[in-house]
Automatic annotation (TrEMBL):
Gene3D superfamilies: Sulfate adenylyltransferase. InterPro entries: ASCH_domain, DUF984, PUA-like_sf. It comes from Sagittula marina. The lineage of its organism: Bacteria, Pseudomonadati, Pseudomonadota, Alphaproteobacteria, Rhodobacterales. This is Uncharacterized protein YhfF. Residues 25-137 form the ASCH domain.
Amino acid sequence: MTRKTLQEIVDENPDAETFRYGDSQLLCNKITDLVRAGRKTATVEAMRVYQGRGGDALPEVGRRDIALNWNGTPALMVETVEVTTRRFDEMDEDFVAAQGEFRDLAHWRKVYRAYFSRSGGVAEDMEIMCERFRVVEDYA
C-alpha cells in the first residue's frame, strides 16, 4: 500500500489544520505515540495561541486535523469531539488523566508551567483551551 503524501491528505481535507504536538522533537514523538496508543485523548493550549492576527485556528467540534511528525510528514488524523476553555488554576484530575502523560494534577501543573513559560508566560488565571479528540486515521 502506498502512503499518502501530506498534500494528498490536505487536498482531501481542505478544512483541516496541520500541527505538531509539543515544542521539541522528543516531546512530539512521545505525545504522538501516546495518541497513537489511545492513551492520550485530550490536550490543552494557551488561548493566546488562537488570538490576534496570525493566530492558529481554534479547534472546532467535528473538524478533522492532521498531526504531523516533527519532520513534517503526516502522523495522524484526529477529530475534535469537545472544546472548552478554563483558567490554568481550574484544571482538574479528570482532564489531566485524559491527557495520558501525567502522574497527577501536581505533575501536570509543573510540566505545563514550564511549557507555557517557554511559549509566552504562565499565570494562574490565564485562559487555556481544553480539547478532547479521537484518532480517525493513523498514517504510520
